[in-house]
Write a structure and sequence with these properties.
With 337 residues, the protein is an alpha/beta fold. 34% of the residues lie in helices and 19% in strands. The chain folds into two domains: 62 residues, Phospho-2-dehydro-3-deoxyheptonate aldolase, domain 1 (Alpha-Beta Plaits, 2-Layer Sandwich), CATH 3.30.70.1140; 254 residues, Alpha-Beta Barrel (TIM Barrel), CATH 3.20.20. The strands form three sheets. The chain has an eight-stranded parallel β-barrel with strand order 7-8-9-10-11-12-13-14, surrounded by six helices. A four-stranded antiparallel beta sheet has the order 2-3-1-4. A two-stranded antiparallel sheet has the order 5-6. Helix 3 runs parallel beside helix 10, helix 5 crosses helix 6 and helix 9 packs parallel to helix 10. The mean pLDDT is 92.
Length: 337
């Protein structure tokens, strides 16, 4: 249920209404926009009569919300959420690029790539320390050592780091990670979602390979239900009948998610196709569709990469791409940071 308050409603009366609603076991999500002030009610609202709410002198209107997601719902929070990671803002007209290697392989590698992508205009450094691989015989990442190398790169470049968490056992290792990524395979690992929600750190949540958009937003709801509203949604391609590329990028997810939710939406064109030459056109399409950022894999020597070299750009290719992306985002009214 959403309660729209009258303009200039006395604060004392508003507080009295909130106190009565809380006494009935409801949580209140307050949001103030440019045109209205809204109280979003979370909980069992079936016993709350709309006529009783409307009778309150501070109430302008009451609406029932049929969607199962509440805190992530744009109806509850009309204004775009802006997630800040270090000095970088994502959402609300702010556009950011996350770039770096699929996996951390050595100190020299991660630092070389970090400096290159920073020079080209990336704001955040990505790198996998723990790698979820389809085959148990594939490179699984450097694990805790990889996290240390990411921290070292952050110290030398000042770039916030983005890396994927695999399970709740690793939580202590991620306490100072700037943006915690929950990958596609863990999108519905609900215990992990609750745990990162309690960490109160920004979370990048990737869409599952076969997940609907509502399922993605419901997974974000798990994080937000723990009191963490700093969630970024990531479309990274879904599994379809097409076999010419790794996944099919659902570019329509951007405007639809923007309608459904107030959370920032970024696109990962590298995982979407799994082919390096496709990253550029898909990245441009993402910007044109209204995405709040990009997540791009960059490796200093893709041919020798231990993970996903076929979809990784070289530093020179990434710099060339940024030379096209930044002006396009700026033309569409995005603040590139």
């Amino acid at each position: 249920m959403i309660i729209i308050l009258k303009q200039n409603a006395p604060e004392q009366q508003v507080q009295a209404l909130c106190d009565e609603l809380k006494a009935r076991g409801l949580q209140i999500h307050a949001s103030t926009g440019s045109e209205a002030r809204i109280l979003g009610l979370v909980g069992d609202t079936k016993a709350i009569a709309e006529s009783w709410v409307r009778a309150n002198p501070v109430v302008e209107d009451v609406r029932r919300v049929t969607e199962p997601y509440k805190k992530a719902n744009r109806k509850f929070h009309p204004a775009d959420t802006v997630v800040q990671v270090g000095n970088t803002k994502i959402g609300g007209g702010n556009f950011a690029v996350i770039a770096g290697p699929c996996s951390v392989e050595s100190e020299e590698q991660v630092l070389t790539v970090a400096r290159a992508v920073q020079t080209a205009g990336a704001s955040l450094l990505r790198g996998g320390a723990f790698k979820p691989r389809t085959s148990p015989y594939s490179f699984q990442g450097m694990r805790a050592e990889g996290l240390e190398l990411l921290r070292a790169a952050r110290e030398k470049t000042g770039m916030p780091i983005v890396t994927e968490i695999m399970n709740t056992e690793h939580l202590p290792l991620f306490e100072d990670v700037d943006l915690i990524q929950v990958g596609a395979r863990n999108m519905q690992n609900f215990e992990l979602l609750r745990a990162v929600g309690r960490m109160k750190r920004p979370v990048l949540l990737k869409r599952g390979l076969s997940a609907t958009l509502e399922e993605l937003v419901m997974s974000a709801e798990y994080i937000m239900a723990e009191g963490n509203d700093q969630v970024i949604l990531c479309e990274r391609g879904i599994r379809t009948f097409e076999t010419s590329m790794r996944n099919t990028l659902d570019i329509s997810a951007v405007p639809m998610l923007k309608k459904m939710t107030h959370l920032p939406v970024v696109i990962d064109p590298s995982h979407a196709a799994g082919i390096a030459w496709m990253v550029e056109p898909l990245a441009k399409a993402a910007v044109a569709a209204g995405a709040d950022g990009l997540m791009i894999e960059v490796h200093n020597d893709p041919a020798r990469a231990l993970c996903d070299g076929a979809q990784s750009l070289t530093p020179d290719q990434f710099a060339a791409l940024m030379g096209q992306i930044a002006p396009l985002a700026g033309y569409l009214g995005k603040r590139v940071n």
